[in-house]
Design goal:
Farnesyl Diphosphate Synthase; mainly alpha; 380 residues; 2 strands
């Protein structure tokens, strides 16, 4: 006998008046609080040590927030597809995405060896520090890595539970779950391609773009837009337009993130600004610099950008930054971001969304990419 089935997380908001994207984000924060309270209570019923050491950490990490961009794009997709009435399923889907993002960040920091996230020690670093403080046996770093993997798994389980509960109660739940399922697979595929490219020392521009699309563009913008639109029962033309808009907006976001990863201020971003350069992570920014160095015969730049053994020292990172500037790669990526942001806006307009929703999408793309989308003729 099957069952008992999961039950919906409960009504999120009783006021059905249309919210703005910032209002929806605040509403999702309230949904997250209720979900986390429930999950923490369940964790304590399971095991007190697990609840204290791990579940509380995961909940605290989620509560530290971030941009909540995916939540806002879910809302924007729902509104673009004509969504109205009770927004509860949309808000719970946004909350599920924030839990999934926690999993992605925790695991990403483990794979990249990043020490900092959201202005605090990364999860694996925090676990390792407690291991050392407690004078426990074995390797503190190994313990931290293993515990952080489990913490990411827990965040994923919470995300899947919430999305499943929402899908079971939604009129278009099967379609919603299918979007979610594909998105999770794309995330893993993108992360693996990222690891593989780093191991091989690749400089291939097409591979860099594939990784950016799989790992970030679809997950950050395209799929959240489609998740929201699916809840509104969107037809194929609207979904196609949203996915195209999301690919462009998502790539603009990832390219900006690459620039921040190379040139950003950790005091502002809350994460290291040199991890990508130290590890020579394949990004469109790196691929552009390698291509431009080869095209101009700049052998010094090519040597600085070439794969090397181990993490680069500080002076090597500074030389890479200088080369990214000198070759024109940074300027090229900035121009590409502007073109992608504008293209995303054009695709979004094809949905027929109301002007207020189009303005919200443009504002979100500006937040994600750092540039205000402009019509193509204004970019000349």
């Amino acid at each position: 006998m099957l069952g008992p089935w999961p039950t919906p997380a409960g009504p999120a908001e009783t006021n059905h008046a249309p919210l703005t994207a910032p209002g929806a984000t605040r509403a999702v924060e309230r949904v997250l609080e209720r979900v986390l309270d429930t999950r923490l209570r369940q964790a304590r019923e399971t095991d007190a040590v697990f609840a204290h050491d791990m579940a509380d950490r995961v909940a605290a990490f989620v509560r530290r927030g971030g941009k909540r961009l995916r939540t806002a794009f879910v809302w924007c997709g729902w509104r673009a597809a004509g969504g109205s009435g009770d927004p509860g399923a949309v808000l719970r889907t946004g909350a599920a995405l924030e839990l999934l993002q926690a999993c992605a960040l925790i695991h990403d920091d483990v794979m990249d060896g990043s020490p900092l996230r959201r202005g605090a020690p990364a999860m694996h670093v925090d676990f390792a520090r407690d291991h050392r403080t407690g004078r426990a046996g074995g390797s503190a770093d190994s313990f931290g890595t293993s515990a952080a993997v489990l913490a990411g798994d827990l965040a994923l389980a919470w995300a899947d539970d919430l999305l499943t509960e929402t899908a079971l109660a939604a009129p278009h739940g099967a379609r919603l779950y299918d979007e979610w399922r594909v998105m999770r697979t794309e995330m893993v595929a993108g992360q693996y391609r990222d690891l593989r490219a780093q191991a091989s020392g690749s400089s291939d521009a097409e591979e860099a773009r594939t990784i950016a699309v799989l790992k970030s563009a679809r997950y950050t913008v395209a799929r959240p837009l489609a998740l929201g639109a699916t809840l509104a029962g969107a037809d194929a033309p609207v979904l196609d337009a949203l996915r195209a808009a999301g690919r462009c907006g998502g790539l603009a976001f990832q390219l900006r993130d690459d620039l921040i990863g190379a040139f950003g201020d950790p005091e502002v971003t809350g994460k290291p600004s040199d991890d990508d350069l130290r590890s020579r992570k394949l990004t469109p920014l790196l691929a552009a610099a390698v291509r431009l160095a080869d095209a101009t015969g700049d052998q010094e730049a090519a040597a600085v950008l070439a794969p090397g053994a181990g993490a680069r020292p500080e002076h090597g990172v500074e030389r890479m930054r200088a080369v990214l500037e000198r070759t024109g790669a940074r300027a090229e990526i900035e121009a590409r971001i502007a073109r992608l942001a504008a293209a995303g806006l054009r695709h979004f307009e094809a949905t027929g969304a109301a002007p207020v929703v189009r303005r919200e999408f443009a504002a979100l793309v500006e937040r994600a990419s750092g540039v205000a989308p402009q019509p193509a003729e204004e970019l000349v």
